[in-house]
């Protein structure tokens, strides 16, 4: 998943049941999306949480309808290792569009490369929960999950 800062995205998905591991770093795809952009790889148990639920949380916890000036650094994307899954993601995005007033800009993309971020940045939220970045950006996203996706929380 790619959307906002990988510190935020990592914290969001680490808070969900069925998520086994989150790798934080930089992801590239192909063509016009071949540059690296902040993102995460989610390892999850589909018996505990569905791809639909993961995509739904992702869309609601970053600016999935905003084509802001930082989109190259923070590409709004759902990366897939499986070409068949891209069709599934397209269908999920189509179904969830009804929940948003503006068009979703989130793209289903083929995964190409991953570069892990520095180890010192892994689990940023757990290490800096009281810090200003976490208070300003991560805590509101976790509160949103608690308010709207409580059944998905660990």
Could you please describe the fold and organization of this structure?
Helix content is 36%, strand content 19%. It starts with 5 loop residues before the first helix and ends in a 6-residue tail after the last helix. The longest helix has 17 residues, at 132-148. It has one domain (6-152): Peptide methionine sulphoxide reductase MsrA (Peptide Methionine Sulfoxide Reductase, Chain A, 2-Layer Sandwich). The protein has helices at 6-14, 51-60, 83-96, 124-128, 132-148, and strands at 19-28, 37-44, 77-80, 107-110, 113-116.
Portion of residues within helices: 25-40%
Tell me the name of the CATH class.
Alpha Beta
Q: N-to-C terminal Cα separation, in Å?
A: 19 Å
Order of neighbouring strands in the sheet with most strands: 2-1-5
Give the CATH H-level superfamily: Peptide methionine sulphoxide reductase MsrA
CATH architecture name: 2-Layer Sandwich
Give the helix/strand class: alpha+beta
Q: Which H/E pattern describes the elements?
A: HEEHEHEEHH
Q: How would you state the average pLDDT, rounded?
A: 96
Please tally the β strands and state the result: 5
What characteristic shape results from the CA principal axes? Answer: globular
Report Rg. 14 Å
Fill in the CATH topology. Peptide Methionine Sulfoxide Reductase, Chain A
Strand content: 15-25%
Number of helices: 5
How are the SSEs ordered, and which strands pair?
Layout (H helix, E strand, L loop, with lengths): L5 H9 L4 E10 L8 E8 L6 H10 L16 E4 L2 H14 L10 E4 L2 E4 L7 H5 L3 H17 L6
Parallel strand pairs: 3-4
Antiparallel strand pairs: 1-2, 1-5
Helix pairs in contact: 1-5, 2-3
């Amino acid at each position: 998943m790619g959307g906002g800062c990988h510190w935020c995205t990592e914290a969001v998905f680490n808070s969900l049941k069925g998520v086994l591991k989150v790798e934080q770093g930089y992801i590239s795809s192909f063509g016009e999306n071949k540059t690296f952009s902040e993102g995460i790889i989610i390892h999850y148990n589909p018996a505990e949480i569905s791809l639909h639920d993961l995509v739904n949380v992702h869309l609601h916890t970053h600016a999935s309808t905003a084509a802001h000036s930082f989109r190259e650094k923070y590409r709004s994307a759902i990366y897939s290792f499986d070409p068949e899954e891209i069709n599934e993601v397209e269908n999920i995005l189509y179904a969830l569009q009804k929940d948003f007033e503006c068009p979703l800009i989130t793209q289903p993309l083929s995964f190409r490369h991953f570069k892990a971020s520095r180890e010192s940045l892994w689990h940023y939220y757990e290490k800096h929960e009281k810090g200003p970045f976490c208070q300003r950006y991560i805590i509101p996203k976790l509160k949103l999950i608690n308010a709207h996706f409580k059944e998905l929380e660990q």
